[in-house]
Structure formats: C-alpha cells, structure tokens
Amino acid sequence: MKRRAAAEAMTLVADGMTLGLGTGSTAAHFIDLLGEAVRNGLSVKGVPTSEDTSRRAEAAGVELIEPDETTVIDLAVDGADEVDARGDLIKGGGGALLREKIVAAVAKRFVVIADASKKVAELGAFPLPVEIDRFAYGLTARRIREALVAQGLPGDIALRHRPDGAAFVTDGGNLVVDCRARRIHEPALLDGALKSIPGVVETGLFLRMAERVIFGTADGVEVLR
Ligand code: 5RP
C-alpha cells in the first residue's frame, strides 16, 4: 500500500524539478522509485528532511542539495502518521517533524503519501510529537501538559526515548515529547497554544498544508483533494 501511494506520487514528478524528500518508510518507497527513474534518465534534485533520508537518497543515486542552495522546491512528498478528512496531519513519528515542516511549507506543492490505515475521523489517537529545546525541557514539558489540560485533553505526555533507553535527539539536536491527546477536537487551537510556549520548537500538527493526500489501498489508490 505504501509502495502504491509512492508510485502514484511519482506521476507528479517532472524532469528538472527540485523535490522535498520526506522521512519514514513510505517516503523511503518514493525515494527508491525516484532512484530508479534517475537511473533511467530523470534529472531532479532532492532536499532531504533528515539524515536517514539523506543516506537513503544518496544510496539510490538521487542528487541532493542543501535547502539554502535553492529558492524553489517544486514538490515535497512525505508520509504521515494520521490524516483526517480535511487532509490535516499528525507527523513526526520518525522525529523529523521540524525539517519536514520547513520543507513542506516552502514547497509549491506538498503531497502526502500513506497507507489507508493512516486515515482517521479525528486526529489524536497517534501521540502528537512536539519538538522542544533541551534547555529546561522539564519545565517546557510541564507547560505542554498544562496547555493540553486547559483544552480538556489528557495531560498524558512522555519524553521520547530510543530503544537503548537514551533520550531521543532529533537531527537538529532537540528532544521530542509525545502527547497522548487521544482526540484533538480543535487542532489549530492546540497548535497555537503549544507554539506559544517558549521552548517548543515545532509541533507535529500539519494543518492545511497538504495539497493532496494519496492513500495506497489493498487494490489501488484513493486520493483526497
Ligand atoms: C517522520 C514522519 C513520517 O512521515 C511518519 O512517521 C510516517 O512514517 P511511515 O511512512 O514510516 O509510516 O513524520 O517524522
């Protein structure tokens, strides 16, 4: 299903484009397909959203550039952890939310690829990742909890850890707090409240950013917008 969604997104790619390359297992399918197309003569440049993606794209033979080497990203393609009926997203399960959001926001077109299991009626069952600065992270986490509770949501948050028990650190050197909000009735309000807390670097709420969402299904693709 992930591969099908990635293959459909490939139909939007044209010669000469600069592409934002997302992070995660679905985005990895897109990168691999892009690599195949490059070997068959396609000429594109990629802006990776994580060190993992950078390594994968390099291995696939996709030419990479630094974000500041270009003024235009024609198309960004990335996965998602949850997608609601409006095309609003939770992202950041892989911890690349900040770079993913910077690239998606700059791109002329932001297209999401996902398997059909990512479709939800309301965002929030997937814990919302919030990237925070390391300085005074305990105090910032406490304010995040208070912001959740003030919106009637459970203040159930956890600092993300790696499998070896060490704190998870993003490519930008920050920490991630996962918020088990369960049902986010007002995503824009929550996003605003979280971003107003000094120490919060970015949230995993990607609201009104996706131009199109391509779901891979058991027997084809479904396109939202
Ligand atoms: C990484 C992300 C990913 O796009 C998201 O976690 C989906 O990953 P996958 O395609 O592996 O299900 O936001 O920060």
TrEMBL record:
InterPro entries for this protein: NagB/RpiA_transferase-like (IPR037171), Ribose5P_isomerase_typA_subgr (IPR020672), Ribose5P_isomerase_type_A (IPR004788)
E.C. number: 5.3.1.6
Binding site for substrate: T23, G24, S25, T26, D78, G79, A80, D81, K91, G92, G93, G94, K118
EC category name: isomerase
Reaction it catalyzes: aldehydo-D-ribose 5-phosphate = D-ribulose 5-phosphate
Database matches in CDD domains: RPI_A (cd01398)
Listed SUPFAM superfamilies: D-ribose-5-phosphate isomerase (RpiA), lid domain (SSF75445), NagB/RpiA/CoA transferase-like (SSF100950)
BP-aspect Gene Ontology terms: D-ribose metabolic process; pentose-phosphate shunt, non-oxidative branch
Gene Ontology, cellular component aspect: cytosol
Biochemical pathway: Carbohydrate degradation; pentose phosphate pathway; D-ribose 5-phosphate from D-ribulose 5-phosphate (non-oxidative stage): step 1/1
Pfam families registered for this protein in UniProt: Rib_5-P_isom_A
Catalytic residues identified in the record: E100 (proton acceptor)
Example of a GO MF term: ribose-5-phosphate isomerase activity
Main function: Catalyzes the reversible conversion of ribose-5-phosphate to ribulose 5-phosphate.
Family in the record: Belongs to the ribose 5-phosphate isomerase family.
Quaternary structure, from the entry: Homodimer.
Protein name in the entry: Ribose-5-phosphate isomerase A
Gene of this entry: rpiA
